[in-house]
Amino acid sequence: MKSPLPSLVMLVALASLARAQVAPPKYESRWHHILGRHRDANNLDRRFNDIKCALVLIEAGQKLGTGFYISPDGDIATASHVVADRTFDRTPDGRISVNMIVPTVMWLTNSKGERIQIPATSIEKNPDAWIADVARIRTGTNTACWLQESDDRKSHPGQTLISMGFPGLSFKALTLYVGIMSAHLTTNLPTVVLTTGEAVTTTTEFIRVQMPISTGLSGAPIIDEENRAVAVVTSAGGWTHDLDNLMMAFHGGAFQTPPPIPNPQQPPNTVTFTLNPMAVTAELAALFHDYASPGYGDAVPLRYLRKPQQQNPPSALRDH
């Protein structure tokens, strides 16, 4: 009689291997689709038609961007750089203040082509949100079509997401994009440049999305599978308005390294190098601009629109 020991060892080894493998994805049965309540996130044409009433094209002077309704009271979320030119300063206590220079009036156009005019004072004063590059516009116009907020901290890489908006090359046509969430991240780039030329690193959290969004889609919503808004698009193709500021400051001479002081004790024909970290960062940003992939973008979570309990020092909201 053969000993059962070899077979038992083989079974144990196979069981251990099975536990070590990644579990295959679970698919819903056909009966679940027929008899159960099912939301088909891939029904993109239906979702496009359901969501489009919440989107608006924003015209603020020469700026064009996207916004979307986030409340039945007509509040609109967008990127702050869509509605204003921002300048940054440091307060005596070391904080960063932001000034928003906006046109006297702005125009909103919905998916039906209906156009309304709103004053610059409709932008809610919230310096923390403006620094994070998001803004709330209080139109005071009731709407039955708006996007509920989704908690971005419950989102995860690999989650299917969509975006809708009015990118520059769409000629004001509402456009749909499909992709996934690829990461939660914070940037360590000095993306805020003060009026003094000092570059500052912010701690804003981002959601990185992997989808072929176009430059000019700023202010558009990132939408989850339940048609809820997770975040506001602030950059596309790996390039941001803040990096533009960094490049402008660099080319304006803000990061120029002064010539080295001659040292009479050095041998003749000695070459002295002085490394300027900010100039190096700006040069790397230029390379990043040239080679950045257009297949991804960053979005700021909607929670940044909520005012903190302790406000930054008030910042000016000026018209021009």
How would you portray this structure in words?
The chain contains seven helices and 17 strands. By secondary structure, the chain is of the alpha+beta class. It has a six-stranded antiparallel sheet with strand order 7-6-1-2-3-8. A six-stranded antiparallel beta barrel has the order 9-10-13-16-15-14. About 2% of the residues have low confidence.
What are the defining features of this structure?
320 residues, alpha+beta, Thrombin, subunit H, six-stranded antiparallel sheet, six-stranded antiparallel β-barrel, 7 helices, 21% helix, 29% strand
Topology:
Layout: H1 5-20, H2 30-35, H3 44-51, E1 55-60, E2 63-69, E3 75-78, H4 80-83, E4 85-90, E5 96-102, E6 105-110, E7 115-119, H5 127-132, E8 135-138, E9 160-165, E10 175-186, E11 192-193, E12 199-200, E13 205-210, E14 221-223, E15 229-236, H6 241-251, H7 277-291, E16 296-301, E17 317-319
Parallel strand pairs: 5-17
Antiparallel strand pairs: 1-2, 1-6, 2-3, 3-8, 4-5, 6-7, 9-10, 9-14, 10-13, 11-12, 13-16, 14-15, 15-16
Helix pairs in contact: 6-7
